[in-house]
Amino acid sequence: MFQENAQILWNKNVGPSYFKIGLTCHKGYSDAQPGQFIMVRFANRMFPLLRRPFSIHRLIVKDDCAKGIELLYKVVGEGTRALSRLNEGDRLDILGPLGNGFVFFNNYHRIFIAAGGIGIAPMVFLAVSLQQKGVDLSRCTAFLGGRSKDDLLCADEFVSLGMAVQITTDDGSAGSKCLLTHPLEMATGANRPDIIYACGPLGMLKCVANIAEAHTVPCQISIETVMACGMGACLGCAVETKNGAAKYLHACVDGPVFDVKTLKI
């Protein structure tokens, strides 16, 4: 874990209310795992008072060493609105990489990635990492969903990696007019994957968990939750477990990625 005063490399608008921001980072981020996150605070400003969590969207690598990280975020409140107004050369106080990421085993060959809305943020990093581990991404599928076409991001990046992509929108403005869990369930029943990785709204994750259980497919989900510290001190990101000695785990230190069998969602 590193705390540093990171310089902004770019802060680009990539869609209505969506931005990608590039930041310099410590070389130790070369060991960051997909699903991990950073906590961000504005340098030399009192507002927002608390740090905000952001998934690592991808690493910026040169000569096999991380030189920066990129975050994908949506403007939803005053904090992210202030973030969107920053420019190249400005600085942010960042702490990371934090948490536990997605776990990969060598017997995972046919992989489904499910991402709803801004839940896409950690999934590009995951797909790139899978390719680097030797996974044939042509055997894998990304299921991307959003309320409308304006909420669909990164489809081209998955295609460029060789993955099949299925798109759904609630209003039918792009892809199929349905929830992404519909084609996910059909595909899982037709040709069972080795693992499902998912990130998105809680309702979506509940449906994904049910699909995985019904078809006995391993499944890992990244939980989107409010965090105040990112290090387990404030206990504000508790998630209830199904069983075991610990009734609650904490998304920041035990997650944000969990085996779906662990959580009561």
Describe this structure as you would to a colleague.
The chain has helices at residues 78-84, 123-132, 155-160, 181-190, 202-214; strands at 2-15, 18-24, 37-42, 52-55, 58-62, 65-74, 91-98, 111-116, 141-146, 164-169, 176-177, 195-199, 219-222, 238-240, 248-250, 257-259. With 265 residues, it is α/β, with parallel strands linked by helices. It has two domains: 2-98, Elongation Factor Tu (Ef-tu), domain 3 (Beta Barrel); 111-259, Nucleotide-binding domain of ferredoxin-NADP reductase (FNR) module (Rossmann fold), CATH 3.40.50.80. The strands form three sheets. Strands 4-3-7-1-2-6-5 form a seven-stranded antiparallel sheet. A seven-stranded mixed sheet has the order 11-10-9-8-12-13-16. Helix 4 runs parallel beside helix 5.
Blueprint (SSEs and pairs):
Blueprint: E1 2-15, E2 18-24, E3 37-42, E4 52-55, E5 58-62, E6 65-74, H1 78-84, E7 91-98, E8 111-116, H2 123-132, E9 141-146, H3 155-160, E10 164-169, E11 176-177, H4 181-190, E12 195-199, H5 202-214, E13 219-222, E14 238-240, E15 248-250, E16 257-259
Parallel strand pairs: 8-9, 8-12, 9-10, 10-11, 12-13
Antiparallel strand pairs: 1-2, 1-7, 2-6, 3-4, 3-7, 5-6, 13-16, 14-15
Helix pairs in contact: 4-5
